[in-house]
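user: can you give me the structure for this one chain? tokens are fine.
assistant: on it. calling the predictor now.
[tool input]
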Amino acid sequence: MEPAYFEREVEALSTALARRRYRHDAGLEATLDLVNDYEGYERLCSPETFERLDDTPIDPKQLRSLRRFVAEQFLESGARALTERVANFETGTTVLWNGAPLPYRAAQVAQWTEPEQERRHELAELVLAETARLTRPRLERLSVVGGLVGELGYRDMVSLWSELHGLALPTLNETAEQILAASSSLYDQTLRDYLVHHQLAGDVWEVDLQWIFLGAELERDYPSQRTVPSLYRTFRELGLALEDQSNLRLDRAARPLKRQAPFCSPIAVPDEVIGVLLPLGGRRELDWLLEVVGLAEPFVQVDGTQPFAHRRLGDVAVGRGYGELFRALGRDPGWLRSRLEVDDPRDHLRLASFEALYRLRRAAAMFRFEQELHASEEPESLGESYAEQLGGALSVRVAPEQYLSEVGEQPIAAHALRGAMLGAQLSLFLRGEYDDEWSRSSRAGGFLLDRWREGLRYTADEFAQFCGFDALDPSPLLAELRERLAV
């Protein structure tokens, strides 16, 4: 196998798939059709290529990333008919709301923004009824992928993750348990405070938390004429002016079929990178803007002469770490005062920190469930386990109908967990090296730019060590959140 030709083929397939996914997830195309994108790449996406890569003279770090790409595309190409079926159902179905059909994806967002709890639950039930209709095809897909994993020589998806993502699963499981135990009382007390404040009692659902996190009572401090300029000003002061980055585009358009969660689409790295989010306004949109630009910058700024594996395929948790680093500015008192001109940021800090703690605990609980699901011989019976584990971690009702909606070939919760830890450690490092207000330092920007130019060649664990830590550790993040929530 000739390495240069192989790498070009990998990059071409990656670009085609990323473009297709972007257009569907951004709500630009109602139908996901992957058949043409995989056509001609059958040999690339095969167990034979996966095995032969071991004999290819490639740097070990690049090799692991390339093997992971081949493995994931072999699994996806084998299950693409079911992938399309699920995706096209999501963009094709509607719920009846306020006497008119509302697209499923739009309803997922509308349930967050509905201010009246009874109506919020009513809409959530309509959304969950449609989600439940996806359980059968998602189970079929899980079964197909599970069989294909065996063709790659792995016992199950979890063992594939351990090797190809370099996850030290016993250590990460201990970390997840540590997070849940160490933050339990802080989380429950903060939750009680917010439920009392918003007069929410009785049967509280997870969708109620999403409504709380919107921070409607703080809306006046996030006027649209200030939020986007605050983002641009931050990167300008870092010496990383976004207006000069022609290869980065922010897709903030409102579309009824647009995916609810923000995401970064690195289509052709570094030439075409798109950050995608819904224009919800307020603190939620600002958090998303900061996060998606943090996710995008490693792809935008990478040296184009780096091997494709380092430009595009490295440890996902490193990119997540940058996203968390910038999102955390929304709970930085100095940043809120200087960029948003908030005189007293205590309420902002507390709400943003509560949401960060919620997201951390959710990732820890979801990481445990991901492993249970992929190791189970009876995944169809695990909806209640999902609801119990996540409901226990979050102290609210979590719907069992959505237990398959957050899992796939990638260890999504593990990436979120490791990225959250790395983001907090990187923030602590930047504060120590530069200043508490590191986001106003061009020297800090220069440090970040140097790391981004190198590409994603280092793992999150290696990056944490580079910043002076023994390993990825939740302690800095937990300490910060304890301090903020004590305000």
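assistant: here you go. The chain has two domains: 3-93+133-153, 179-485. The chain has a mean pLDDT of 96.
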